[in-house]
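Course assignment 3, question 2. Fill in each field.
Student: A.L.
Task: Predict the tertiary structure for the chain below.
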Amino acid sequence: MLEAGPALKVTVHINQDTGSTHGFLTDDILTFLQDKGIAGATVLRAHAGFGAHHRLHSSDVGDVAGLHLPVILYFIDEVAKVRSILPELLAMVTDGLVEAHPTEVLKIIHRPEKVLS
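Answer field:
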């Protein structure tokens, strides 16, 4: 369980339509992180952006370019735990950018999960 203190934040920059052997890479990475016991992960879809090819992709474009939007996936966990999964994560990312930053968790609260009836 993640506690307050030193941690490592990893950010993965890919496109939402980046594929993998099982579907989309973002889904595979999320499943991988869950399987490895990472404390949590978030995927954010951008409105617009460009990468190494300098082609602008925007959500208000109606063609295929609008489907090739940037996605940012990030997670934070204990330094040793993150370092132990990095080789597998890096092997999964075949197109994009992966970065890591040292960070400090100041506060983390786990509330009981709400059950919807």
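Instructor remarks: The CA atoms of residues 32 and 73 lie 13 Å apart. The chain has two helices and six strands.
Grade: pending
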